[in-house]
Amino acid sequence: MSGIRLPIELAAASSVAIAAILVLPHVLELFALINATVYVSLAVLALSLALVWGFGGILCFGQAAFFGLGGYSYAVAAINFGDTTYAVPVAIAVPALVAAALGYVMFYGRISDVYMGAITLTLTLILFNFVNSTAGDQWRVGAAPLGGFNGIPSTPPLNLPGDPGNPLPPEWIFAIAVVSLLICYILAKLILRARFGRVIVAIRENERRAELLGYDVRAYKLGIFVIGGAMAGLSGLLFANCVFVSPTMFSLFYSGQIIIWVMVGGLGTLVGPVIGAILLNLLTTWAGTLPEINPSLILGAILVLAVLVMPRGMLPSLATVLGRFRGAGGVT
Amino acid sequence: MTALLATEHLTMRFGGVVAVDDVSLTVADGELRCLIGPNGAGKSTLFKCLTGQIKPSAGRILWRGQDITGLDSFEIARLGVGIKTQVPSLFDGLTVLESVRLALRRQARERAARAQALATLERLGIVELAPRLVALLAHGQRQLVELAMVVAPEPDLIILDEPTAGMSAEETTRAARVIRALNAAHAIIVVEHDMQFIRAIAKTVTVLHQGRVLVEDDVASVLADRRVQDVYLGKADATPLRRCASASPKVHQ
Q1: Where are the domains of chain A?
Q2: Are residues A214 and B105, on separate chains, in Cβ contact within 8 Å?
Q3: How far is CA A206 from CA A135, A176, A210, A226, in A?
Q4: What is the tens place of the pLDDT at every residue in B73-90?
Q5: What ipTM was estimated for this complex?
Q6: Which of A138, A151, A193 minimizes the C-alpha distance to A3?
Q7: Which of A201, A206, A215 has the CB atom closest to B105's CB atom?
Q8: Could you read off the pLDDT of B28-47 as tens digits, one per residue?
Q9: CATH architecture of B5-90+154-247
């Protein structure tokens, strides 16, 4: 809570982001740079769950649904508008609205945590199956065919605002992804520091007590859930810019992975899940190049090890070890 | 003058069981009221109705004459009701100061809120606990921290559910002193079954039995009342009265 820590943390995060933008495009080959952009977009996704689960205490299996919705909304809007300028707010607004509707039903209906997990997971599966079955010409939104299993390979890359003739090169997209991650991180930090965020943490600690103090718990939970949905949507947009949108964005593979990134990185921290997402994706990609070994097997082994060795996640464990040397507090 | 809090024919049924049966009581501004009764008398159910944790099956709850039946806990808290639960309900992962700060919901200005939170801790004699993590506190300290959260926003009414649960005799005496001191500034309803404690603090006592109001009178009359003794003695558990009788022989001549 000390006054100087926040500026230092924000300055450090900004430095890392600027360094990444300045250095990586020059040292990485195009393919690796696009991969790096994918990792950064997934880091935004991890950050969204870090906020919703790690601080809001809402274990949401549906983050992949908002991620996919963001990607698809972006692709469909960009194709229809013929310009990506207004597709960006659409990609953030659609998942946020869906999160608001779903969150309203869950929180105001006082649905318990277990069912909340089931509901969010079901939403993801429904969307996955639905989008998968949209092959054929009758499934189109305006000019954009949904493409079923194949997704929308013609997902247009971002262009300069108002200038559709000028699609941005991968270096720019990478920079935009990094800046988006930085903005989301700063936003999350500020939210948690503000009254709203402090109440959110209090609700995570003891919902009943927060209510007895006069806080409308439902509204706070809905608020953080919508913010998380919007952030996941942004992540889907960035992802769509490196690859293209396809039903796998809604798959169990992603729903499960996000949870692993957050757990391994450190539940209740913001930087942890970001690092967790990037490291685990690097590792999965590397494991994919190994002959004879299934990358999922390695990922599974890492998860089991992480839970056994560092039950609180990478970052808190690291902070504890460092703290023994310096007598310092935790990291968020 | 309208009562601070009143119930009119309040009834709570769970299937065939009537846990609270046609209870009408009024609590005035500044009053200290005890709600007692043996196990299963309906005390906890009544507490849950009053604090908005469950909605009564019938009857009304009035706050300064206004119908507040069916309001949620947070809405009842916002009226100016501080609620302390039987098992301390705390924010384990936060510091004591932050916890009390959160209790000052209406105080948006950070510096003022901090000062007010510290003043509350000072008042309860636990200001040195301010930077400590709640999870690391001892049981008695946890009780006091919860009390600090309850009294910090200066509620008009405080409802305490079995505040002496799990306390030693010495701690109980101290708790009685604290509650009497709080009564100088707040109306208080205490839900209890420890008779000794009741004797130490109460002015007016409402005795519940099988969901109904059995007696409502000052503490001496209630303790001398034959029906109350029967209720407490009647079944297997006679301890509360014996303990109380030895402590106050005058009442049971």
Answers
A1: 5-251
A2: yes
A3: 47, 38, 6, 21
A4: 999 999 999 999 888 899
A5: 0.85
A6: A193
A7: A215
A8: 999 999 998 888 888 889 99
A9: 3-Layer(aba) Sandwich (3.40)
